[in-house]
Amino acid sequence: MADREEDLVTTADEAQLRQLEQDMFSAIRTRDRQLLESILDERFELRVPGSPTADRAGFIGAILAIPGTILSVESDDLRVHVYGDVGVLTGRQHARVRLEDGTIVDDVGAFTDIALNGGWFSLTASPCQPPPDSSRARLGFTSAAAWGDG
Description:
Nuclear Transport Factor 2, Chain: A, six-stranded mixed β-sheet, 6 strands
């Protein structure tokens, strides 16, 4: 019976983490500074290989500065793991943006998100290949220049 109760807690925790991830994607898509600030821990860091670490203010500033209209921010291959009070999500994020000239741009990256105390504490992102059916350019927001540090 104890195993079953633990499974139920884990399932509830996993559902809460999935919702937190969806709230994060929604906040990015709508450029909702207030929601981003409520989701991201004050000690938040974004780490992108080959780029300086971005803090919470730098990450939010970069989201708000994305040119054009953010059409979608979605994830696939999402995996959720709960280790006591720490949640870890891994997967791929796909963002689609329409630039001022009408060009549609795709950005695809692998991510690892760490949740602590109900907020995102750390994100790690690495660029990856866009979907095979995409002939569009990449946004490149996983580069140092996109986060204002490079």
